[in-house]
Amino acid sequence: MDFPPWLQQAIQTRLDEVSVRIEQDPELSSVRGKTDEAFGALFGGEDVEQTAEYIEWENRYIVSKGIENERLYMQGLRDGIQLTVSILGQSMEAEGEKPNT
User: Fold this and answer.
1) What are phi and psi of 10, to 5 degrees?
2) Could you tell me which of 64, 57, 59 has the C-alpha nearest to residue 40?
3) Backbone CA torsion sign across 38, 40, 41, 43
4) What is the rounded CA–CA span in Å between residue 28 and residue 19?
5) Rounded distance, CA 39 to CA 43, Å?
6) Torsion angle of alpha carbons 25, 74, 32, 54, nearest 10°?
7) Crossing angle of helices 5-23/52-97, nearest 10°?
8) Do the Cβ atoms of 15 and 79 come closer than 8 Å?
9) I need a surface site. Which of 37, 56, 61, 100 has the fewest CB within 10 A?
10) pLDDT tens per residue across span 29-83
């Protein structure tokens, strides 16, 4: 099912807004800061992937990406539910306006 261009644009705009809000989230910024610190420690070792610093950075990176993805998913779920309720509400109103036969 293809969505009309106006709906695709509305969805993209909403995704952009939510992404910006998540990018600026203070809790996530703190996690990213710790991730960046751990990443900065990587360049002291020669075999980066085998160092404790790399493992620390990788773990923090995975956590920060997990938080971002979870927040994007939850916002998408809320938006989807809100859209569904709105569409169903309009549909029910339209049915109520039909004369009974």
Assistant:
1) -65, -40
2) 57
3) positive
4) 12
5) 8
6) 180
7) 140
8) no
9) 100
10) 888 888 777 777 766 555 666 778 778 888 888 998 898 888 888 888 888 888 8
26-40 vs 52-97: helix crossing angle, rounded to 10 = 150
Is residue 7 over pLDDT 50? yes
Report pTM: 0.51
Q: Using DSSP, how many helices (H) and how many strands (E) does the chain show?
A: 3, 0
Residue owning tokens 């773990």: 59
Element (H, E) at 36: helix 26-40
- CA 52, 47, 41: angle at the middle one, nearest 5? 50
Tell me the C-alpha distance between 78 and 16, whole Å.
15
Residue pointed to by tokens 């169903």: 88
- How far is the CA of 47 from the CAs of 41, 44, 54, in angstroms? 13, 9, 9
Structural tokens at position 15: 């995704």
